[in-house]
Amino acid sequence: MLKPHDVVVITGASRGLGRHLAHQLARMSMRLVLLARHEEDLAEVVSEVVDLGADAFAIPLDVTQYEACKSAIDTACEQFGRIDVLVNNAGLSWWKPFDTWSVSEIDTVVDVNLKGTLYCSYAVLPYMKAQKAGQILNVASDVGRRAVPNMGPYVAAKHGVVGFSGSLLREVRADGIRVMCALPGIIDTYFGGAVEGSRDPSWAMYPEDMATALVHMLQQPANMVTDELLIHPLGQDY
Ligand code: NJP
Hints:
Blueprint: E1 7-11, H1 16-27, E2 31-36, H2 39-51, E3 55-60, H3 66-80, E4 85-88, H4 103-131, E5 134-139, H5 152-172, E6 177-184, H6 207-218, E7 228-231
Parallel strand pairs: 1-2, 1-4, 2-3, 4-5, 5-6, 6-7
Helix pairs in contact: 1-2, 1-6, 3-4, 4-5
This protein binds 5-hydroxy-NICOTINAMIDE-ADENINE-DINUCLEOTIDE PHOSPHATE.
């Protein structure tokens, strides 16, 4: 259950789903710490969420760098005194046959989608364990449960995120920490080089609607947990 002034750290908050989630949490008077690489985009989102009622700041970082993740989580806790929620939402992929991926593209997709989630979760756990409370919400993908061609490293990484979420939940639920995993289908964002607003709602979800689904997961009473939420646009062929 979220309460006003809860402290929420969101990765991938500079655009797309993370930005819309930040907007919704701002309307609920949360304290937000927004993480992504692009400083100017983050500054715009900070200004938007402050206008909507949040106390917020941003830290530009690359989630593939453990020390940067650790330092951002430490700073969030120093500034706001606690961390109630971590949303591991940063993600990216290319779409092409596996033998045309470069090694560096393979590394990037695994590092951002999977290792970024592991790194931020690892950095936040000591704080949540000390609080005996907290929520970690990992944004995986519907391809974390099934396979599609041409996204091999992404499919592998998102399967990893789903597996990690279930494993960690079983470890830390006794500490009052919920670990949840969202498995969305296609969302109308900048993902994969698209432009938000360019996808047809018959086969792509609006990011604000997906953000509402994430907020719902965070709003469960403390004795309940939505382990996984698989959610699709009705018209998506899968
Ligand atoms: O994508 P997009 P979404 N370090 O491109 C950030 C999953 N998903 O909102 O670093 C830190 O609009 C990037 O910021 P920046 C998807 O896998 C989506 O749709 O400044 N941050 C931006 O804020 C992902 O997990 C679809 O470039 C990094 C954000 O990530 C989540 O939904 C389908 C980073 C990406 O925003 C949100 O993605 C699906 C790094 N190294 C799952 N690299 C879909 N849209 O169809 C990227 O199944 N970011």
